[in-house]
Structure to design on (489 residues):
């Protein structure tokens, strides 16, 4: 049995906190054990990070030198795509087909921010005077706390670490309790790529202890968080006390809507992927379905057919669509939501159960589930379930559709299925969500900003601005003459 070390200030050492275990959600088998970080580890990592980002060896590195490290990390990830995907699957139970995609996306993220770092420009504002020239420069913030969830570690962790380092900061990464393996592997890759010691530390441990201490540490100058809305709100309070910025990627209850002129097969397949991939454990999962009444019956029939054809099973096996949920507690919470839907008058069309296959008995599997007969006020339409549960509702006109789609505290993403592009675009402009997919769902591009409206978050990741989110602007006024400052007349 492997006992892992944590990565603290450029050294691999035993964490000084309690013993933690990483288990394969498919059968509960042990992946690895490690000692979590404790508060001394947090203090040591932050102190080292503060020294490291201020050190001339890092501050004076030119952008292409920082970019070279990220480029190398990207190459290392591509070289090890398969073992990394296996590791990610063992850590959180997502099927290999999905984790391969996540690993490839992490490599692309490192490559993109290497490029962004090289082409990042300061600004020369419009000059308003002949007496002074003004410049606007971008500078790093300092030590960044990156706090991540368990559902897509390699992708969400790279999305924070790469731009933060590209911008010249140091990063302390606190992965989710359930999934410490990938963050530690990333540390190994950055070390191999030649990142100077101290610029990245990885501190596994409890969110309420290690994450909290990190966020509160006076030398931490930004909290970049992905996770649940209540934790995000709490961290926004912590940041407000310290007057530091946050970037918060939070929950969702995303509507996906099928207009009367949609391509039914394209919509059904996209909706199925949008809710059931990752077994619904995605903040962007399209969990509320609105279908024009004229298509409602045939679309639901096709969705049930597609859902019953999905393979639920060991995520390491080829052809599996849904792996297990992260753990038994989470599965219970999903099952409780389905029971609640039934109490509120919902009808389960398909799923709503644990699979009967005895081979799956040791994992937290749950069947793809479709529920109807509820309206948008039902709790299962308002609260994030984070599981393979779709609630379908018919609509009659677009005004009603927009009202229902926007009737949510969340505003992360939405899907529209229609052959009428101008109409779909007009609808998209009225949706209160950070992302709208038209005739596709869960498609991503690293150059396109991502983030939420309303309680789904603050700030944006990805895109060229993704690097500036880890920087602060400095304006410099340079006198163009030798005049002495005068009091204005
Ligand atoms: P999820 O529902 O995805 O687990 P959480 O918000 O609970 O969402 O967790 C996301 C990340 O936030 C995890 O790494 C977790 O350990 C961390 N976390 C939880 N509570 C706190 C906290 N009080 N301060 C800092 N980090 C926290």
């Amino acid at each position: 049995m492997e006992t892992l070390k944590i990565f603290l200030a450029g050294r691999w050492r035993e964490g000084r906190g309690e013993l933690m275990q990483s288990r394969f959600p498919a059968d509960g088998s042990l992946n690895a054990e490690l000692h979590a970080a404790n508060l001394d580890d947090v203090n040591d990592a932050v102190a080292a990070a503060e020294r490291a980002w201020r050190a001339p060896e890092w501050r004076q590195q030119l952008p292409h030198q920082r970019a070279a490290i990220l480029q190398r990390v990207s190459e290392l990830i591509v070289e090890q795509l398969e073992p990394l995907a296996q590791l990610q699957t063992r850590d959180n139970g997502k099927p290999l087909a999905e984790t391969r995609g996540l690993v490839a996306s992490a490599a692309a993220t490192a490559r993109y921010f290497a490029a962004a770092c090289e082409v990042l420009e300061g600004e020369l504002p419009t000059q308003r005077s002949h007496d002074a020239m003004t410049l606007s420069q971008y500078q790093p913030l300092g030590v960044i706390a990156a706090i991540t969830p368990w559902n897509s570690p390699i992708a969400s962790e790279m999305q924070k670490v790469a731009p933060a380092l590209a911008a010249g900061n140091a990063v302390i990464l606190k992965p989710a309790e359930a999934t410490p393996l990938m963050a530690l592997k990333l540390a190994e890759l950055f070390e191999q790529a030649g990142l100077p010691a101290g610029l990245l530390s990885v501190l596994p441990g409890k969110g309420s202890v290690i994450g909290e201490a990190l966020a509160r540490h006076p030398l931490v100058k930004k909290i970049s968080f992905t996770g649940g809305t209540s934790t995000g709100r709490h961290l926004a309070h912590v940041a407000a006390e310290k007057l530091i910025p946050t970037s918060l990627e939070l929950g969702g209850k995303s509507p996906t809507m099928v207009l009367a002129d949609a391509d039914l097969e394209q919509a059904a397949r996209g909706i199925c992927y949008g809710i059931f991939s990752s077994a619904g454990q995605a903040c962007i999962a399209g969990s509320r379905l609105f279908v024009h009444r004229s298509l409602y019956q045939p679309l639901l029939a096709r969705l049930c057919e597609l859902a019953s054809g999905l393979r639920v099973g060991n995520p390491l096996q080829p052809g599996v669509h849904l792996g297990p949920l992260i753990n038994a507690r989470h599965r219970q919470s999903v099952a409780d939501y389905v029971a609640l839907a039934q109490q509120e008058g919902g009808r389960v069309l398909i799923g709503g159960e644990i699979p009967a296959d005895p081979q799956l008995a040791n994992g937290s599997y749950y069947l793809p589930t479709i529920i109807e007969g509820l309206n948008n006020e039902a709790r299962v339409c308002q609260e994030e379930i984070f599981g393979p549960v779709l609630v379908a509702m018919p609509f009659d006109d677009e005004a009603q559709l927009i009202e229902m789609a926007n009737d949510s505290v969340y505003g992360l993403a939405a899907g529209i299925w229609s052959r009428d592009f101008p109409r779909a675009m007009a609808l998209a402009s009225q949706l209160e969500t950070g992302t709208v997919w038209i005739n596709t769902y869960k498609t991503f591009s690293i150059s396109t900003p991502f983030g939420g409206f309303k309680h789904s978050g603050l700030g944006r990741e990805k895109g060229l601005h993704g690097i500036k989110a880890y920087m602060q602007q400095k304006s410099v006024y340079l006198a163009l003459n030798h005049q002495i400052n005068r009091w204005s007349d």
The two ends are 79 Å apart (CA to CA). The CA atoms of residues 156 and 454 lie 21 Å apart. The chain has a mean pLDDT of 97.
